[in-house]
């Protein structure tokens, strides 16, 4: 049985974690982004299918490619972040199942139906996107996840090449950096246990 994490960790990841609208002028080195992924990849997925793919955007050139596909209200807070991640799903993720789930050689066939594969990709890829955010917070970074963008435009811009990204589709965007506390609102309410949960 594991001991629970302390209150500092709970505050950092959950109680005080916020979605930021602006960023401090503070560098986030690539080594830290790699460390975020190395934590996030440990999260559980069905049959360890790991369908999420992450495109980390840092350069001004890459941000310029992303800009036309953002909702106007998301442009400033997205492009001013040190990093923006396109959290995507690989709809051919089953090709890597023999590598990722080696103790069951037939597991790849579980995902042979394209519609079922899409459902598994969305469910498990979204989980992995959440793991990425929790990992970033655990390593002292802040996040701003968003769905306010033109998905078709992003996919055409970043995933149209005939390479391994051809079967990738964007799920959501997440700006990553050191958040500026002056840019956040008062925390919005959450549903109570009785409103959101049932015990049977």
Plain-language structure description:
The protein is an alpha+beta fold. Helix content is 36%, strand content 14%. The chain has helices at residues 7-15, 30-40, 60-66, 75-79, 97-100, 114-138, 151-158, 193-196; strands at 52-57, 83-90, 142-146, 168-177. It has a four-stranded antiparallel β-sheet with strand order 1-2-4-3, sandwiched between helices. α1 packs across α6 (114-138) and α2 crosses α6 (114-138). The longest helix has 25 residues, at 114-138. It is globular, with a radius of gyration of 18 Å. It starts with 6 loop residues before the first helix and ends with a helix. The model has no long low-confidence stretch (mean pLDDT 95).
Which features does this protein show?
four-stranded antiparallel sheet; 8 helices; alpha+beta; 14% strand; 4 strands; 200 residues
Which overall shape is indicated by the principal axes computed on the Cα atoms? Answer: globular
What structural class should be given to the helix and strand makeup? Answer: alpha+beta
Mean pLDDT: 95
Q: What distance separates the N and C termini?
A: 26 Å
Proportion of β residues?
Answer: 5-15%
> What's the arrangement of strands in the largest beta sheet?
1-2-4-3
Catalogue the unreliable spans: none
User: What is the chain-wise order of helices and strands?
Assistant: HHEHHEHHEHEH
Number of helices: 8
Output the radius of gyration: 18 Å
- Counting DSSP E segments of at least 2 residues, the number of strands comes to 4
What percent of residues adopt helix (DSSP H or I)? 25-40%
């Amino acid at each position: 049985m594991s001991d629970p994490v302390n209150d500092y960790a709970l505050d950092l990841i959950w109680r005080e974690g916020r979605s930021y609208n602006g960023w401090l002028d503070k560098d986030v080195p690539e080594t830290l982004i790699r460390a975020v992924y190395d934590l996030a990849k440990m999260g559980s997925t069905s049959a360890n299918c790991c369908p999420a793919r992450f495109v980390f955007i840092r350069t001004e050139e890459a941000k310029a490619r992303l800009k036309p596909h953002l909702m106007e209200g998301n442009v400033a807070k997205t492009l001013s972040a040190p990093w923006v991640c396109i959290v995507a799903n690989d709809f051919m993720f089953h090709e890597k199942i023999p590598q990722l789930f080696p103790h069951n050689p037939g597991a790849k066939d579980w995902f042979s139906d394209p519609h079922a594969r899409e459902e598994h990709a969305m469910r498990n890829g979204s989980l992995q996107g959440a793991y990425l955010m929790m990992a970033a917070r655990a390593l002292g970074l802040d996040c701003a996840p968003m769905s306010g963008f033109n998905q078709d435009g992003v996919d055409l811009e970043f995933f149209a090449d005939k390479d391994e990204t051809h079967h990738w589709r964007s799920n959501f965007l997440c700006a990553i950096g050191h958040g500026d506390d002056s840019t956040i609102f008062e925390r919005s309410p959450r549903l109570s246990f009785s409103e959101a949960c049932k015990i049977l």
